Amino acid sequence: MISLSETVRISFRSLWANKMRSALTMLGIVIGVAAVIAMLAIGTGASRKLEKEVNSVGSNLMIVMPGSRTQGGMRMGSGTQSTLTRKDAEAIVSECSAVAAVAPVMRDGCQVVYGNQNWATSVQGTTAEILTVNDSVLQAGRNLSQQDVRNSTKVCIVGPTVVDNLFGGSNPIGEVIRIKKVPFTVIGVLVSKGQGPMGQDQDDVIYIPISTAEKRLFGDRLPGTVGSIMVKGRSDKAMHRAEMQITDLLRQRHHISDAEDDDFSVRNLTQMLKMAEQFTKVMSLLLGAIASVSLLVGGIGIMNIMLVSVTERTREIGIRMAVGAKAGDIRLQFLIEALVLSLLGGLVGIAIGAVCAGLISHLAGWPIVISLWSIVLAVGFSGFIGVFFGYYPAYKASLLNPIEALRYE
């Protein structure tokens, strides 16, 4: 029986003797692996980016929105009726055991001025708990205090985007800015959170005491009402219980009968964002699965070429068998040839796929992540393709009769 090293040497020599055909045979595998690597890199990168943005919004986060109102027979949509109050927020945090923190919020877009600079941003009247609810961190200065809310102090916390556009990156602590011509002293600067899942700039924000917002900036609203209530659950598992507790409590506080609809809505933002993240992961796998079809096509190409090769090399097979090669040697030789073509095509495809993914990322601005498992998957699948589609030609070659093979022209 011929040794394995000799069989491998013969296989490589045969492939090298037909370089062009070998290269064209590998082409299908190269394209398939490159497509899989590029699609998985883009899909995984998008999933990681969304996961980062979801975490930046805040963990275990819910938002309670006011209900809708009907005018002239038309339902105006959520938030068109002021049904939530600061008292509701206080009741939620004190009576709902599944809730960890609550921050009532009044928000509006305002023009902010500092010196000869101005900037349009989101101004939110809230309480000190907003940093806990949103998982925000102070870079410098201090947080809002209960005394600030109680005394309607004209102080504010600013996001990094506001600092860059008003102060040019210099330290804003202690400086006075004007919001709707009302002076506010900057007492804190937030750590950057970056872009949110919906594309919004989470750093383009100013927090002020909710009482100050009500009395000084948003005086046209009903006293005590708020635009929304941000809620942080105690844990991921407690989110559903928190939602039910909030719903029952607010229906009781708003005197809503069983036959009436809620005049508010509770939205589980964390669940919504995680569903979007899961959808991105599914799309990534779907793109990889679609791209892997070309690997199947490449495998069929390998089988076709190997079958042609068996026919062309019938006389060579006969000579080898006549000088002592066994059926297993012939089968192993063709299997090795198919496996080499697949694995070599897989390695070339990985390189091309990585280059294509990087090019797409550069031109389109999409994030990419080339993970180790995607490389192992692509190479392993290409090797499986080689063995699977190379076995039949190898088996057919091993069944040839040596005498008939020698007579073959």
Structural notes for this entry:
56% of the residues lie in helices and 18% in strands. The chain has 409 residues and is α+β, with helices and mostly antiparallel strands.
Q: Unreliable stretches, pLDDT < 50, 5 or more residues?
A: 70-74
Helix count, DSSP H or I runs of 4 or more residues: 13
Q: What is the H/E order? A: HHEEEHEEHEHEHEEEHEHEHHHHH
Q: Please state the average pLDDT score.
A: 80
Biggest sheet record: 6 strands, mixed, barrel
Strand content: 15-25%
Main sheet: strand order: 4-5-10-7-9-8
Number of domains: 2
Globular, elongated, flat, extended or rod-shaped: what is the shape?
elongated
Structural category:
alpha+beta
Number of strands: 12
**Rg from Cα:** 34 Å
Cα(first) to Cα(last) distance is 27 Å
Short description:
The protein is of the alpha+beta class. Helix content is 56%, strand content 18%.
Descriptive tags:
409 residues, alpha+beta, 2 domains, 12 strands
What topology emerges from the helices and strands here?
Elements lengths: L3 H14 L1 H39 L3 E6 L3 E2 L2 E2 L10 H10 L3 E16 L2 E10 L3 H4 L4 E4 L4 H6 L3 E4 L1 H8 L8 E4 L2 E9 L14 E5 H8 L10 E6 L5 H15 L10 E5 H44 L1 H9 L4 H38 L7 H27 L3 H6 L2
Parallel strand pairs: 5-10, 7-9
Antiparallel strand pairs: 1-11, 1-12, 2-3, 4-5, 4-8, 4-11, 6-9, 7-10, 8-9
